[in-house]
Amino acid sequence: MNTWNLDDLYKGFDEIYQKDMSTLEQLIDERIALIRSIGSIDDIQLIESLLSLGEKTTILARQLSSFASLTMATDVTHAEAPKHLARLQAIFRKSTKEDVIFERHLETLDLDRLASLSQRINDHLYSLKRDAQDASHLLSEDEELLYSGMRELASSGWSQLQGLLTANVSVHYRDKTITLPEVRNLAYDNDPDVRKDAYHAELDAYKQIDDAVALALSNIKREVVMMSKKRGYESPLEKTLFQSRLSKTSLDAMIHEMKAFRPVFERYLRAKARYLSNADALPFYDLFAPVGKADVTYTYEEAQAIIKDAFYGFSKALGDFATRAFKENWIDVHPKKGKRGGAFCSNQPQIGQSRILTNFTGSLSDVLTLAHELGHGYHGEVISKNTPLKWGYPMPLAETASIFSEAIVNNHLLSKVTQKTVRLAVLENALQGDTQVIIDILSRYLFETELMALAHGPISKHQLNRMMEDAQKEAYGAGLDHQSLNPYMWLNKPHYYSAGLNFYNFPYAFGLLFGKGLYALYQKDPERFVRSYDTLLHMTTAADVEDVAATMAIDVTGQAFWQASLSVIKDDIEEVIALFEEV
Fold first, then answer.
1. Are strands 344-348 and 353-357 parallel, antiparallel or unpaired?
2. Which single residue of 14, 80, 296, 409 has CA 20 to 30 Å from 219?
3. Region for 278 from its dihedrals, namely left if φ exceeds 0, alpha if ψ lies in -120 to 50, beta otherwise
4. What is the per-residue pLDDT for 294?
5. pLDDT at site 295
6. How far apart are alpha carbons 550 and 545 in whole angstroms?
7. Where are the alpha helices (DSSP H) in 346-482?
8. What does CATH list as the number for 15-149?
9. Tell me: the pLDDT tens digits for 283-311?
10. Burial status of residue 543 (CB atoms within 10 A of its CB: 0-12, 13-18, 19 or more)
11. Residue pLDDT, tens place only, 503-544
12. What are the residues whose beta carbons fall under 8 Å from the beta carbon of 186, sequence distance 6 or more?
């Protein structure tokens, strides 16, 4: 019961799956024929027909690709799934040339005028204008066609290699062999010797695969830099900001305040170091050390009960969603060999569901991770009511519902705590997450910025390790023991290994701080906020980040909002430091 059920997608790569694959190819062929009729067909008819085709294609493509990718997520050695993903890529590649032609045609049209004449076009005006804006960065039709094919053999292949190696690497911990997710979960163990031994076992395991993964990362980022320049972007970050629907002004304002807030986190980390071992700075392997009543662990059933209680305390809709996800086996829960590490949520709006992967071992952090992913799932529930072409949302807003859901569960736990040792355990665990999403994310942003600057040639594992250590020193400052860093953090984070999704680090910080700001609004007026929450989530698929934030009277372009959100964390840090002295 603790593995997900994919039957509502497909029951296997059977005749139904193959028939749907053929239908998808027919839809792409229809798209190609329509675009080739440009000049001989009315523009309104053309766009409306393409929108209708796009909806059908989106539904079928999500169904087909999700089944294959989710199958691989729990079995990275699966023989059939990669073949079907490759075929899907080949099918979509067929229309590459025509897609370029259509986007360039959009650039020549008065879309506002057409929208005034067609309600269907007006409903999708935002995305059509973005496509027209993107047209200036397209290569020639033949070049785009060539790159779409070569990408499978280049960055996509390197990404698969990283996933395969990290999922199957053997970790020799003490007298047994375990998986990478299992050894990483030992970072939360109560026993300091276990944490330290696990840290060294993890680093030793990476040495088995670091040459190959360094080559993968180096080649992916070299491709990214080369293609960004070829497309006329000033940098890969510029492209990421466009994809994120976020202005550089907003990003700079947030990063500035994150850097200014580093001394506050330093105080917390040094206080934790003194609490644990009377040291001046915290070694990396103690970042996730539980404190307070450290023997608190949870069964999966207990985690479900906590989350449902907390979610129902916010709204019936959120509680009902979690109940359904648990009851209908949408979640693959425990770690196992061949299963990818970490956690994610895959929204399936075409069937009104989601699928969630975790590597649950019973820690408080695991409970909050489960709440986080269910938040993603609820976001998917809300947008499933949109039309298929409005099922996507940008990276910074992708973390809104997830981090907000974490806050709901964390504050629910705190509301029931009376003992100081238990309150310390819960509150400090939340600070661990805040540290990761503010300080460690800052280190990842700094690392990837330097990585992009150097990605004009091969980058060795030694360079990557040095860069990661430098980034950690700058981000964590005196709070982290510089003799016990984690130079291999570049190796185990899949976010670095997508040529089409770069700088997938700052959106987490944005999501955390945006979520904390939203939670503060919720506490001021719960009833009004609950009425507005779904509207905000609904809007994330069809507006820029700044406009979505404005619906809650939030200005993310200035520094005041980020300072206010960080001050919420400061209050928690002050309380935790005081509790360190009392318990």
1. antiparallel
2. 80
3. left
4. 53
5. 64
6. 9
7. 364-383, 395-398, 400-415, 420-435, 441-454, 461-476
8. 1.20.140.70
9. 999 999 999 875 678 999 999 999 999 99
10. middle
11. 999 999 999 999 888 988 898 899 989 989 999 999 999 999
12. 173, 194, 195, 197, 198
**Confidence at residue 365, expressed as pLDDT on a 0 to 100 scale:** 85
DSSP labels, 267-284: HHHHHHHHHHHS-SSB-G
Can you read off the two tokens belonging to residue 553? 């009277």
Residue type, 454: L
Q: What are 293's two structure tokens?
A: 């009543």
Q: Quick: pLDDT tens for 299-354.
A: 999 999 999 999 999 999 999 999 999 999 999 999 988 898 889 999 999 999 99
SS3 content of the chain, % helix, strand, coil (to 5): 70, 5, 25
Query: Could you identify the residue written with the tokens 């890969």?
Result: 236
Q: Which of 419, 413, 418, 474 is nearest to 442 (CA)?
A: 474
Contact status, residue 31 vs residue 46, Cβ threshold 8 Å: no
For CATH 1.20.140.70, list the domain ranges present in the chain.
15-149
Report how far Cα 121 is from the mean position of its chain's Cα atoms: 31
What is the C-alpha to C-alpha distance for residues 43 and 113, in angstroms, rounded to an integer? 11
